[in-house]
TrEMBL record:
One of its GO terms (molecular function) is DNA-7-methylguanine glycosylase activity. InterPro entries: Alkylbase_DNA_Glycosylase/TA (IPR051912), DNA_glycosylase (IPR011257), HhH-GPD_domain (IPR003265). It catalyses: Hydrolysis of alkylated DNA, releasing 3-methyladenine, 3-methylguanine, 7-methylguanine and 7-methyladenine. It comes from Mycobacterium adipatum. SUPFAM superfamilies: DNA-glycosylase (SSF48150). It comes from the Bacteria. Residues 1-20 are annotated as: Disordered. It is an enzyme of class 3 (hydrolase). Its EC number is 3.2.2.21. GO terms for cellular component: cytoplasm; protein-DNA complex. This is DNA-3-methyladenine glycosylase II. One of its GO terms (biological process) is base-excision repair, AP site formation. Keywords: DNA damage, DNA repair. The keyword Flavoprotein does not apply.
Amino acid sequence: MPTASVTFGGPVSPGLTLSPLRRGGGDPCFQVVAGDTWRTSMTRTGAVTARIRKTAPDTVECEAWGPGAAEFLDGFAALLGSEDDPSGFAPAEPTIAEAHRRVPHLRLGRTGRVLEALIPAVLEQRVYGKDAFRAWRLLTTKYGAPAPGPAPAGMRVPPTAEVWRRIPSWEFHLANVDPGRARTVVGCAQRADALERLQPATAAAGLTSLPGVGVWTAAETMQRAFGDADALSVGDYHLAKVVGLSVLGRPIDDAEMVELLEPVRPHRHRAVRLLEVSGLAIRQRRGPRQAIPNLRAL
């Protein structure tokens, strides 16, 4: 059983770094059990199950099973944020500066797997998170492979690009995924080889050149696949309001958010994550939740 250990030059919080990879509490590809984080992936060399645990204030260890174990462990340090470079991030805005003071050890990790970050983001376009998480859970449970090794019950490896390409349209319908998002998922899977060759500097242009992939979807993908500290999720239904309420005490729109965060470029996503994990993010009170449209009944 291959293993790896990473020691950082200060406190480490794998929970904060890895949590954006979890798509809801029932994600078949990401579970937290007794303090251990279990994650599955389909690497270039095959499926892998990894158990990640913090063993000291500055140290994290990983055990991995499956044909992709060695490849996964090669990228384990980067997954935990070893390549994250916060140099130059010195926010003058008081709330963001306080968030940084509270969580100075936040690190942005990178998976290196573009399609695995892109497809869940496509499923999350223009719908409630609860509905998107359900779709991800249903599709990966049915079409993903069983997780190798001693994984928690029910864990699955994300489907390969070939499998995503061949999922019938009615299966997307049963998962409450509309035809537009389904076409985008299949189209992205058809271009999987080119997607995995993308480099951080040109990834935004490459991703947004795909039909159905816009600025928001590209940013959400780049945050996870490349650990992009500046990938701001413009177009998110709630984000601008949260940033405005947290920093200015009032909701703002996307244009105002972009202007507000311009001084922290190229760390705009880092600033947003710090607000989220520091406890300083203020969310607008919501009225009664609108019912999720049931496409399966149509």
